[in-house]
Amino acid sequence: MINITSESVVEVDNLSLEFLSSAGNLMALKGVSLNIKKGEIVGIVGESGSGKSVTAMNLLQLLPKTKINIPTGSISVLKRNVAEMTEEQLQVLRGAEIAMIFQEPMTALNPVLRVKDQINDILLRHKKISQNEAEEVSIGLLRDMKISDPQRVYESFPHELSGGMRQRVMIAMAFSCSPKLIVADEPTTALDVTVQAQILSLLKERAKKTETSVLLITHDLAVVAQLCDRVYVMYKGEFVEEGETRQVIGSASHPYTKALLNSLPEGKKPKSRLATIEDSLSNNSEELKINNKIISSTNKHKTILEIINGSIEYPKDYNVFGSPISFHKAVDQVTLTLEEGKTFALVGESGCGKTSLANSIVGLNQLSSGEIRYKGRNIKEQTPEVRREIQIVFQDPQSSLDPRWPVWKIMTEPLTVKQNPTSKELRIKASELCEMVGLESQFIDRLPHEFSGGQRQRIAIGRALSVRPKLLVLDEPTSALDVSVQAQILNLLLDLQDEFNLSYFFISHDVAVVKHISDMVAVMYQSKVVEMGEAIEVLTAPKHEYTKTLMSSVPTLDTE
Amino acid sequence: MSSSSEVNSNKIDKRLNNASLIGPFIPFIQQFTRLLVLLFMVTTLLFFMLRLAGDPALVLAGNDASPEQLAAIRAQYGLDKPLVIQYFNYMMNLVQGDFGKSLASGEPAMGKVLTMLPATLLIAGLAMLISIIIAIPLGAWLGFKPERPDRRAVSGIIFIFQGVPGFVTALIFIQVFAVNLRLLPSLGMEWGTIEYINFFADFSIPIPIPSKTWILPSCSLAWFLMPSLTRVVAANTSEAMREDYIRTARAGGASGKSVLWRHALPNALLGAAALIGTQFAFLMGGAVITETIFAWPGIGWLLIESTQTLDFPVVQALAFCIAILVFIVNAITELSFQFLDPRLRSKGN
Predict the structure, then answer these.
(1) Which of A111, A160, A321 sits opposite B267 (nearest CB)?
(2) CATH of B113-166+215-345, one of 3.40.50.1970, 1.20.1730.10, 3.20.20.70, 1.10.3720.10
(3) Which end of chain A has the smaller Cβ count within 10 Å, N or C?
(4) Do the interacting molecules here have an ipTM over 0.85?
């Protein structure tokens, strides 16, 4: 740790903030005090809706002023009272002294402007330099971001770059005017683990070198552990705990922090029940113990699904008549076997072909060569009734449920494919399904948007269960959820597997989750399966180069 | 090119080589093929539909013509032959560039259309230009902060304008500017004059001077196009203002002006370009009502006249022309998407 002078960059004192709306005001921050010193990396960790992004945006005064009210407190950034500055004064400050890095590199860069225009804009706005000098500085910055061909990236449009590359551009933009403070709002959440590790070390290195203070907003305690000197834990608009990162993670004192740590799958016994926030906060430790038996997996080795030399190709270029002339191989000669009642996990980064493979199992796309055998027969030769035993749950419960359908209709739609049950029968069935997935059955008339993310994922699971499936394909079912909600869903999946002897084909990029839930694991890299075997074995003693990189990239709670 | 669907790497290489030779022209060849198919379908469909509409011989000869006169006329124009033969003859002539003669005047049908076409292109182009010049800045201003009371008021007025039919505006314009104020002519069309302005002894520059007759028709047509375009620009701008990259720009210290003109508007224009294309393609069919009210000698007016007299060759020639124009406008619109959106530029398809 470098010597931190006592000079304060950010001082927020007893800040409260409410959002004004006609439906009633919402208190987003309740008396928050925050302090960041020069050269310090400080984290705010919390779940979605806890108020962490609001805190960050407020430092730059980026919230719409007509829609907020600040009853108490003061914000001082670089010894200036930003709350009382005019928009023009703030524009001089933003980008030059305080910069921000945003979460979604896909949408946070302007799609119609080249990288060079976006970086040069900031430089030319705040520094008295010529166009040519700006170009030189920009390319130098991109090189500092360890981009191997800065000239090409400089000339590119955002869509021509990968997510990691875009985030490097974003960081280059943030550092361009050598600001005193950088606010990074979930800077790596949308990235693959291996890329995340690179971006985090880049950010840390650069910040320490230039003595720039960083405020890191994240939901991921492991990221905080890797990066931050100090951390604030936020819950419902309040900081419930703060301190040195090692101290907070090593010996958390507030029940919420403990709960948050407990809900992480990392370091827990595989297939054990994870503690949820509700469990921990209501102190149901006794009940927890009872539940914490290891769920026994049945030891019958019966094969339920096989993929033999499966390949999937997508057309890339077309000739004059519109027939494809070249192909992109999304899945390349994949062979794997799923056993009944077990969880088979497929790990890999985005674009490696996991979802293509999952979709081909449920028939959403077709293999271009190879075959899928279900219960020993080619899946194409099975009757629709048998094929219906395979169901899928998608990643984003926000967009995979029809927003205009009530829950009972969503959950029971698969039942109406062949038969015509009355809506009364369907509603009874829906109530049963709700009970099965832990939803209250009186909510079956509500629409999806009236539920939280975790509840929506329960609806999606209930929908898949409606036809009594044997095999569930789970495509990143917990990636869009908060860790504590993730814990609930993982618990639910384990319970359901135990009760109905379900087999899971579980797709994830999150190694900790996979380690927790799966029996077998296949690692996919660039369309191929590079390593396969017992989960514990593959993930603790990886053999393939890529698996090793993957495992070393996963941020851990270990602060050393 | 072989039609086999099997894919082996050898074949792919061969096809790729093929493709790279004609590669750059593929989009043009594709477009041209599409145009030919379109023209064939338009002419064929129209040929048979027009024959269903009525008997041109009756129109030519008049209602009190004797059966002998009718038969003579039918023989003269080849209308006595079976429909399929007529169609075949027509298509053969068409391929040779012969659209037949107008039944009403005996002039070549296509020639008649082509003399009327420039007037329509002129009024369509002018109206579109006026509409764009007003709608884009106005829409950007409205969409920048749509919740402000002044913008709400203006939006309301534009909403009302959108509901006013084109002919009402045209008639009000005539009443105000031609009848009451006597500022502008309301009927007919003149081509502008070209004046030569001398700079040096023997060096002069031609300056086109537009005619006053252009003003009322193009303005009333623009008045009709503008509200919807303004509203689309406004909606797209306010949507772009909510995007993440606007927040990024603001966090980098961009001023309100820069946020709107440099970051939000270029993204908002994508939607506007689609509407401009549709509107312009629509105008290619001739602004029938506007041309009629202002006695503007364009193809919209010709379309009405030739349909009323069942002047088949002229209607056919018109449809042919309009199909080509609409096709060109659509192709330009598609090209403009690629110009406006780099994401569409990098991939040919």
Answers:
(1) A111
(2) 1.10.3720.10
(3) C
(4) no
CA A2 vs CA A38, A174, A209, A247, A262: distances in Å: 11, 22, 10, 18, 32
B240: distance to nearest CA of chain A, Å? 10
> Which of B15, B254, B346 lies nearest to residue A160, judging by beta carbons?
B346
* B267 contact A CB<8A: yes
Q: Does B344 touch chain A (CB under 8 A)?
A: no
The pLDDT confidence band at residue A263, using thresholds 50, 70 and 90, is confident
CA distances from B145 to B140, B142, B235, B245, B311 (A): 9, 6, 11, 17, 54
Domain ranges of chain B: 36-98, 113-166+215-345
Residues 161-220 of chain A with CB under 8 A from chain B are 170, 173
The pTM score is 0.78
CB contact under 8 A, A320 and B22: yes
What structural domains does chain A harbor? 8-262 (3.40.50.300)
In this prediction, residue B119 has a pLDDT band, given cuts at 50, 70 and 90, of confident
B29 touches chain A (CB under 8 A): yes
Q: Give the torsion sign (CA, A277, A282, A286, A290).
A: negative
Q: By CA distance, what is A117's nearest residue in B?
A: B262
More confident residue, B284 or A232: A232
Q: How many residues does chain B have?
A: 349
Name chain A contacts of B36, Cβ cutoff 8 Å. Answer: none
Burial profile B191-216: b = 16 or more Cβ within 10 angstroms, e = fewer: eeeeeeeeeeeeeeeeeeeeeebbbb
Which range, A63-67, A445-449, B23-27, B50-54, is most confident?
A: A445-449
